[in-house]
Amino acid sequence: MTRPLIASLRGGFIVSCQALENEPLHGPEMMAAMASAAEAGGASAIRANTPQDIAFIKKKCKVPVIGLYKKHYPDSDVYITPTLREVSEVVRAGADIVAIDSTAMARPGNEKLERLIAGVKENFPDTPIMADISTFDEGLEAMKLGADVVSTTMSGYTPYSPQLAGPDFELIGKLAALGRAPVFAEGRIWTVEECLRCYEAGAHAVVIGTAITRPQEIVRRFVTRLKVKAQS
């Protein structure tokens, strides 16, 4: 059964407000302002990284916040809310939904995804789990383990997933066709037309980050294409 909060996001447009430490807009005040602007424009939810950013955004915005905490461990390539410790910090910061890396890559301490999801359900039963996956098998496994929603966030960002230039429409469609859990489309979505294709493929909601909230990447995209045009 789909949780009411997840159900309420059906057909929604979610904006990911994140900035890395080396980027100009890094910092909770900046991200809270970005989230507030997204909310004013009609975003149905915000996706945010770090407890600090989540807490600031919760003070500024009324829409739900999908929280995550990017943390790197020396023994693992998994970095999106990799352990129960990060989950705890995200939930305490006020996240309404917690996103966790649910790929097949080795986890910190070689912990199994099954154990992490069980731990989240036991310790934070009121917080829905978003499973960030990169392949169909990972999505199916996350559904079997009880994730409340599956997101295609990691498609193209694991070495074994399709390295596509655009959204992974096929993955969205195959997972949505299962009818087992809502599917959020995320990753390399740049246009309204691509958003519509995600919905047509069966996406419950669409998440966009870079195309809206990372100005340096938006400018770089323009400059690169203009240079190519000028040289042709």
Automatic annotation (TrEMBL):
Endpoints of the signal sequence: none
HAMAP family in the record: ManNAc6P_epimer
Keywords for this protein: Carbohydrate metabolism, Isomerase
Name this polypeptide is given: Putative N-acetylmannosamine-6-phosphate 2-epimerase
Its job: Converts N-acetylmannosamine-6-phosphate (ManNAc-6-P) to N-acetylglucosamine-6-phosphate (GlcNAc-6-P).
Family per similarity comment: Belongs to the NanE family.
A Pfam family annotated for this UniProt entry: NanE
Organism this protein belongs to: Paenibacillus arenilitoris
Gene: nanE
